[in-house]
Amino acid sequence: MRVLHVYGGNLYGGIETLLVTMGRLRALCPSIEPEMALCFDGRLSAELRATGTPVHRLPEVRASRIQTVVRARRELTALLVRGRFDCVICHAAWSQALLGPAVKRANVPLVFWAHDAVTGKHWTERLARRVQPDLVICNSRYTAASIVNLYPDVPSFVLACPVSAETARLTATERAAVRASLDTPIDSTVIIQVSRMERWKGHTLLMDALAGLRDLPWVWWIVGGAQRPEELAYVGALRAAADRLGVGDRVRFLGERRDVRQLLAAADIHCQANLGPEPFGITFIEALAAGLPVVTTAMGGALEIVDDSCGILVPPDDVVALAASLRRLVADPVLRARLSSAGPARARQVSDPAAQLRRLSDALHSMCVYNER
Description:
With 373 residues, the protein is an alpha/beta fold. The protein folds into two domains: 2-162 and 352-372, Rossmann fold, CATH 3.40.50.2000; 172-351, Glycogen Phosphorylase B (Rossmann fold, 3-Layer(aba) Sandwich). It has 14 helices and 13 strands. The protein has helices at residues 14-24, 43-50, 66-83, 92-105, 123-128, 141-144, 172-181, 203-211, 229-244, 260-266, 282-289, 319-331, 333-351, 353-372, and strands spanning 2-7, 33-38, 55-57, 87-91, 110-114, 135-138, 156-158, 189-194, 218-223, 251-255, 269-272, 294-297, 311-314. Helix 1 links the parallel strand 1 and strand 2. Helix 8 packs across helix 12 (319-331) and helix 11 (282-289) packs across helix 13 (333-351). It is globular and about 65 Å long. 45% of the residues are buried.
């Protein structure tokens, strides 16, 4: 079946990672032929094209300029007529609200893929509520519990994000080279965080926890680039905080990177001390697949991924508990090794790409068959 994924495409985070993964691994599920319709060119469109996935460019949409919405809907309608797609998946409320109406008018089965909990109060969600899909896909049980706020009468199911099991395997020499390139001693314990540069991702809480562990040999790699002005200001505040707390020489701001697999392979612990619930947590799966123990906050999607076989869950906003957990891991390589060994199996159990794409295929086929009756 031909499936068109509709999204904005001007930023890069979890949704974008999912779309690229689906493009790269589409051979695992030959019953689905994915294509993408994006409103913006950028890293996402480039990476999708590199996988060989067809990418259709829609006009750029600015919600405050109704004429741009009209143009994009018109182009999407024409694409649906030409392409004869079996169904369309709108990713997140923005796409559903602004572009979903064109799908409904074209009488093509519409799927809403929820990537975060919804309250029904944000303007995109209020508009999206008017566009009833035929099926809702939720990236976690946490997200699914909120869908009643948007589509109480629409069938839904939980589909963990398929995450590639590909990891980097570094020799001791290669591992040392990666660390040397980042001014990191080979005998330091590297704590890595791979995330968007947003406050709720908990950088400040982790900074405070690490400030109390100056007696231990750790270095913190922060991976993620500022994509909006407020994120750029946030990075500046983090740099200032690191200097103020006396750990500026141990924190590496790596920005946006294309070699995340190599960085994970050269690190020792993945820590993301979220201040708010993670809807799913692709980065947790990637870290587990790389054999890193994961330390994160006990809320949201993390509760469905991390258990005591592969990581440590800490109470929300508890810098003392976070520092104690990290102290245990930094000081105890045997504990790190035990948690590390269980990571890859846990990653496969939650997010095996072949299994998750088959579940997606089954759900979409069932929806389309039902709509034909």
